């Protein structure tokens, strides 16, 4: 069996049942808030890793996390975050002393005073490309997320203030791309018709235009979150004899290299901007590779009960009302794809204050906030 055939088999059995299933601080230690910075709020774009409930409000969306055990360690319960507690956006909000979680755009109540500290447009299952996410039903593509910011949120923010000055006070966080590989390129005939290099180049070029669009709308402080180690998710390992799938990780690394390069390449084209590349791939890969020393006991299987294929599951989402591991702080993954709050704590802390350019390039978010 060829590598491409094996890859397609692994992903096919892990993901295609989505069509049916969706319808029916280190080691988790308490996060310490930082000194903040000149940040009034955040505008968030991307997929499930940064989604905080937009898909809850979409008809025919099968990518939802609005049930327990999701949110079991979150003060407000299962509102749509694909983890047990806070996601990276929530934790960054803590560091910057934002008074409340960033509200989801799709919530009809997200307007007026509720948007003062930003809006979250991210949609689980979506991607940089418009056709990514079709397998999960109705999702909001990155292009549409940006349009929602432009046509709905911006008019409200304009009232009584200079738009340019106002947006200088916000972080624009973009975390997308993983689904374009897992649920698009490798699950379609694209991988046999288009080389991985060509697909990645097209994906990068598309994202570059989207970032320029945000810049044209006033974005000045932009955070680009890398794609995670796709090949080491429990979903993939469960169908690959417990091993990581190298080709998926290679795809993620290829895209991430391009993403980091964009930080430098876009600067001359967006002269008033400051971009930061957050290498969550490296942070999570380091945790997986050295999980014991970093306070984690399990790095390969999910914390929550993920139904098997024979049980009608898909290897990704937790069972509705299912059991979980007794200690969520020592697991790397909460479900078949998404990390636990404990891992999100580490990512957020490094994003905020790491001095390593291998983790945040060219600087951390505390410095970015004070530029």
TrEMBL record:
<comment type="similarity">
    <text>Belongs to the 'GDSL' lipolytic enzyme family.</text>
</comment>
<keyword id="KW-0378">Hydrolase</keyword>
<protein>
    <submittedName>
        <fullName>GDSL esterase/lipase At4g16230-like</fullName>
    </submittedName>
</protein>
<keyword id="KW-0443">Lipid metabolism</keyword>
<dbReference type="GO" id="GO:0005576">
    <property type="term" value="C:extracellular region"/>
</dbReference>
<dbReference type="InterPro" id="IPR001087">
    <property type="entry name" value="GDSL"/>
</dbReference>
<dbReference type="GO" id="GO:0016788">
    <property type="term" value="F:hydrolase activity, acting on ester bonds"/>
</dbReference>
<feature type="signal peptide">
    <location>
        <begin position="1"/>
        <end position="27"/>
    </location>
</feature>
<dbReference type="InterPro" id="IPR036514">
    <property type="entry name" value="SGNH_hydro_sf"/>
</dbReference>
<dbReference type="Pfam" id="PF00657">
    <property type="entry name" value="Lipase_GDSL"/>
</dbReference>
<dbReference type="GO" id="GO:0016042">
    <property type="term" value="P:lipid catabolic process"/>
</dbReference>
<keyword id="KW-0442">Lipid degradation</keyword>
<dbReference type="InterPro" id="IPR051238">
    <property type="entry name" value="GDSL_esterase/lipase"/>
</dbReference>
<dbReference type="InterPro" id="IPR035669">
    <property type="entry name" value="SGNH_plant_lipase-like"/>
</dbReference>
<keyword id="KW-0964">Secreted</keyword>
<keyword id="KW-0732">Signal</keyword>
């Amino acid at each position: 069996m060829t590598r491409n055939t094996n890859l397609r088999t692994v992903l096919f059995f892990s993901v295609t049942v989505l069509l049916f299933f969706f319808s029916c601080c280190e080691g988790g230690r308490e996060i310490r808030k930082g000194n903040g910075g000149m940040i009034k709020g955040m505008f968030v774009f991307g997929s499930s890793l940064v989604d905080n409930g937009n898909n809850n409000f979409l008809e025919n969306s099968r990518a939802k996390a609005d049930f327990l055990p999701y949110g079991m360690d979150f003060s407000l319960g299962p509102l749509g975050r694909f983890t047990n507690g806070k996601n990276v956006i929530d934790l960054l909000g803590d560091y910057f002393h934002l008074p409340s979680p960033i509200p989801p755009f799709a919530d009809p109540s997200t307007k007026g005073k509720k948007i003062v500290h930003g809006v979250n447009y991210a949609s689980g299952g979506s991607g940089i490309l418009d056709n990514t996410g079709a397998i999960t039903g109705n999702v909001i593509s990155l292009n549409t997320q940006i349009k929602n910011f432009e046509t709905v949120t911006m008019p409200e923010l304009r009232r009584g203030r200079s738009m340019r000055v106002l947006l200088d006070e916000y972080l624009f966080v973009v975390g997308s791309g993983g689904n374009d590989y897992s649920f698009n390129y490798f699950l379609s005939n694209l991988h046999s018709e288009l080389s991985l290099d060509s697909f990645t180049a097209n994906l990068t070029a598309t994202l570059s235009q989207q970032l320029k669009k945000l810049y044209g709308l006033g974005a000045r402080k932009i955070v680009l979150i890398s794609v995670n180690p796709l090949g080491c998710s429990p979903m993939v390992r469960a169908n690959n004899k417990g091993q990581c799938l190298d080709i998926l990780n290679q795809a993620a690394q290829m895209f991430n290299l391009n993403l980091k390069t964009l930080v430098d390449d876009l600067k001359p084209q967006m002269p008033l901007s400051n971009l930061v590349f957050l290498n969550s791939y490296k942070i999570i890969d380091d945790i997986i590779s050295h999980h014991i020393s970093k306070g984690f006991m399990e790095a390969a299987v999910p914390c929550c009960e993920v139904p098997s294929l024979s049980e009608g599951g898909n290897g990704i989402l937790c069972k509705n009302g299912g059991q979980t591991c007794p200690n969520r702080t020592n697991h790397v993954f909460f479900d078949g794809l998404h990390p636990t709050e404990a891992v999100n704590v580490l990512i957020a802390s490094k994003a905020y204050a790491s001095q390593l350019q291998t983790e945040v390039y060219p600087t951390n978010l505390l410095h970015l906030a004070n530029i």
